[in-house]
Structure formats: C-alpha cells, structure tokens
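Protein: Metallophosphoesterase
Species: Paracoccus marinaquae
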Amino acid sequence: MTRIVHLSDLHFGLHRGDLVGALLDRINHARADLVVVTGDLTHRGRPGQFRQAAGFLARINAPVMAVPGNHDVPLYNIPLRFAWPFAGFSEAIGADLAPTRAAGTVRVLGLNSTDPFSWQRGVIRRGEIDRLIGGIDPLATNILALHHPLQQLPAIDKELATRAPEALRRLGAAGLHVVLSGHLHLWDCGGLLACGHPGVLQIQAGTALCSRLGDRQNEFAVLDFAGTGLTVERHVAPMAQEGFQPPERLHFRRGGGVWQALDQGPPVPMLPGATDTAFRTA
Ligand SMILES: [Fe+2]
Ligand SMILES: [Fe+2]
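Structure follows.
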C-alpha cells in the first residue's frame, strides 16, 4: 500500500492558527509515503508568509512536494509579480515549480498552473502536456498534482484553466489515473467521474487552513493506494468547533481503465454559500 496525504490552500497569513497543531498531528500520525501540497501555501505571497509555510512543511515527518497556487505570487507588487512571480516560492519552498516524485507504486507529476498575468485563472502552458505524458510510468499509478482543477462541478462558473480540457483528454488517454487539485476551497471526490472521463479520478481538496468564515470548514485527504483499489479519507475541521472530526472514508476501484465508486451512499450536499466562497477566496 502507498499512502499519500493531499493538502491544499494553506493560505498562511490568513490561516487558522488554532488548527496548525492539530493538522500537523493528523498528517504525522498518517505516516504517509509522500505529502502533496497543491498550491496557495500563502495568502499574499509575502516573505513572512512563505517563512510560516516553510516552517510548517519542515515539521512534517514525511517527504513533501509542493506546486504554486495563484495566491503564491504577489498580487499587489506589480513589478515583482510580472518580473519574478515565483521568486518567493522558489526561495522558501523549492526551486522546482513542477517536481516529480515516486513513492511506492505511485508516481506524482507536479504542474505549475499559476498564471501571473491573469492571476486567478490558471493555465496549462504550451509543451507541458507533452512533458507530463513523457513522465507517465506504465507500471505505476500516475497522479497529476496542480493547483487549478481540470474539471469543475456544474455549479462552479469560474473559468477553467486554459487548456484544461485538452490536458484531461490527452493525459487520460496516455495513462493518467488521478488528479489532485485545490483552488476552489470546495471538496469534490469522484463527483465528476460521470462527466466524460471515468478513467481519471479528480480529488479536489478544500482549504486545509484558510480562516475566512465563508469557507466554513478546513479539510485535507489521506489516500491509500493498494493494487487497483483506492481509499480516500476526508478529514474535516468545522470552523465552528475545535479540531478535526473522525474521518469519512470513500472507496474506489479501477478496472478496464475506468474508476468505480464502491460507496452507494447519497451524494455529499454542497454547503450553503460554498460556491460563493469559491469566488471570493480561491
Ligand atoms: Fe487559488
Ligand atoms: Fe486558495
């Protein structure tokens, strides 16, 4: 079995300080083979916020890989944003903005989908899809980790990242199995399998630490890959109470190139205001 912890949207600088210890405890208790952070490590890309984020990552007792999100470029410092948008991330978190890691039977391909010129809308840059296809291992479970989702629920009317549909189609055909993303501050796991790409399971994490009340809760995921099976543990910490609740578990199996959700329970209802929250905070 290979265990991956998926965190997203930490937003250091606008984060729940009271939850940091509990989050670290849960992450380290999981004894993961790899921790994947899909962007927005900071709220405004400021040096002090990057120092806080780097200090947090240093307390994780597992290998960590991270890609930038749109909040990791300096929004208001225009010269810096256009000339050296990823300087803060590179210095504090890692110079490789699209790292690749192997862990057990899993291969995680990182992608920097942040566009300093449009700031909120993401982009899959020309040549990146070919690079990613070249990184797919036919013997591994292949995972793409990026900030902006490649698919969205119909209720989300934000623009998808440029070339997201092409990336999903071509990478799915090339053997990609899972996408890890964030950005919307809204959980979705398996809700898009019926939307034309049943071979690629997108796990979209909510925000792990952002303190905006409209987000209503913080959360992260623990993924256990075993053969063709995948168990997803969702750890939720409602803002109205202290710490994390016991995790919920979802089960999936892959066969014939298609993922199947094994849980027949009712769909998780969308939180009131969650779509609005996605607009304001992502
Ligand atoms: Fe974002
Ligand atoms: Fe975010």
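Remarks: The pocket of fe (ii) ion (ligand 2) is lined by residues 9, 11, 40, 69, 71, 183, 185, 207, 281-282 (CB under 6 Å).
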